[in-house]
């Protein structure tokens, strides 16, 4: 089976293709494409390409670019980087609850000022909205810190380790069921502005919100108002809407907003982390078996 690796050569991905039973080839001779580039760079595909493997978990740019079709198989990296992002999300909760960001910014002793805002994760309930691979990787980490979990997923099928699991069509109920919230759902038409003014108003005033999904899942204007009014305690955002967040945006001026530049999944080991999944998918494709993280073009993820 001939596979083209693009847009450039990566040693970890190339080795995985060969170990899985594939042969590296030029695109016009390939049966499959492994793509580690952007949607903007995506090439025109010859008809002979029957499978495209993307190395990203979030593939919304490829849908927006119109390159994902139903003429061939597509797979992404959903779930592969779950541990990386779960580590970030739990750390983000600790940053907010322990007020690490305020202490880092401080230029003098601020104990009396910070004391009322410093809280512990132990004994709290964390709602994970979009409890897929990332959420499942978060649960043992949260349990180790003494927190319990409420999960929201598409089907409502119980998630191991969650004390309650709600289906997506009951998401509105979760905002009053937990102390803190992590957004990890896919970006679809149904999840746009999932966290809106009503959701923020229903959260406890001491709540911290963490977004590791996509910026548009949170209504930015509503969040700015909620943070400014003190309706919730704070937010840690690894993704924003718009993204990149422009200079001068109101979020930058809020001391209860912590913003990181989309780094929950570290690029430094991305292809090395993804290589075992790629190797297995090469083997499965050759054997005619179901691919890991197959994309549904109609569902949008």
TrEMBL record:
UniProt xrefs under Pfam families: 2-Hacid_dh_C
Keyword Phosphoprotein: no
Enzyme Commission number(s) from the entry: 1.1.1.29
Keywords: NAD, Oxidoreductase
Top-level taxon of origin: Bacteria
Ranges where the D-isomer specific 2-hydroxyacid dehydrogenase NAD-binding domain occurs: 93-264
Cross-referenced CDD domains: 2-Hacid_dh_2
Molecular functions (GO terms): hydroxypyruvate reductase (NADH) activity; NAD binding
Gene: hprA
Name the record gives this protein: Dehydrogenase
Coiled coil: none
